[in-house]
UniProtKB/TrEMBL annotation:
Its cofactor is Mn(2+); Zn(2+); Fe(2+). Pfam families: Ribul_P_3_epim (PF00834). Keywords: Carbohydrate metabolism, Iron, Isomerase, Manganese, Metal-binding, Zinc. The keyword Metal-binding applies. Belongs to the ribulose-phosphate 3-epimerase family. This is ribulose-phosphate 3-epimerase. Catalyzes the reversible epimerization of D-ribulose 5-phosphate to D-xylulose 5-phosphate. PROSITE patterns: RIBUL_P_3_EPIMER_1, RIBUL_P_3_EPIMER_2. Signal peptide: none annotated. It is an enzyme of class 5 (isomerase). Its EC number is 5.1.3.1. CDD domains: RPE (cd00429). Homodimer.
Length: 205
């Protein structure tokens, strides 16, 4: 089993873009080097914020061409496996998200059913929060025990915090304001990528 099939992927969060210009903003991010676009769906219940208020669930997401559907395990603790199945049946990859207060033990039994684990590095709900470095042991544990797993971090990730994420073992990076508000999106994405790829390379040596 080769470790080098692990790939760095940078996914700007479009929550912070000008949503009235969503197509233009999204295309610009892809042109500037983004591997994927991260879209937050908030229901106003699990999180106190509401972005896309209409009920957007699994089938409509698949129909829209989404390739990976990540959901928080906390509000659906008794239905995680059935949701994983529905997402896969709809032709999408499965991501499982953990908010800061949720320990790794809550997701361990489901890891084999997922394509990716998302470790939230802020409380879900609002962009622009401060990165929580104390979440990095979760990432380290996952990388140590699952060398080829896609591990994503989301929240307060930018040029000042990417080192911690990369060294802990994250290979999928969601970054909102650090990319969106930059005057040179391409340079920021390239810098984030370089840092992560350097850490992946160390694992492969």
């Amino acid at each position: 089993m080769e470790r080098n099939s692990l790939k760095c992927k940078i996914g700007p969060s479009i929550l912070n873009t000008d949503l009235s210009q969503l197509y233009v903003e999204s295309q610009k991010l892809l042109d500037n080097g983004a591997d994927y676009l991260h879209l937050d769906i908030m229901d106003g219940s699990f999180v106190p914020n509401l972005t896309f208020g209409h009920p957007v669930w699994i089938a409509p997401m698949a129909d829209a061409g989404v390739n990976q559907y990540t959901f928080h395990i906390e509000p659906v603790a008794n239905n995680v496996l059935s949701i994983c199945r529905k997402i896969k049946e709809a032709g999408m990859k499965v991501g499982l998200a953990l908010k800061p207060g949720t320990g790794i033990e809550a997701v361990r039994q489901y890891i084999d059913h997922a394509d990716m684990i998302l470790v939230m590095t802020v409380e879900p709900g609002f962009g622009g929060q401060k990165f929580m470095n104390e979440m990095m042991p979760k990432v380290q544990w996952l990388r140590h025990n699952y060398p080829l797993l896609d591990i994503e971090v989301d929240g307060g990730v930018g040029l000042n915090t990417i080192n911690a994420c990369a060294e802990a073992g994250a290979n999928m990076i969601v970054s909102g304001t650090a990319i969106i508000n930059s005057t040179d999106q391409k340079a920021v994405i390239a810098s984030l990528r370089e840092t992560v790829e350097s850490s992946i390379h160390k694992c492969n040596v």
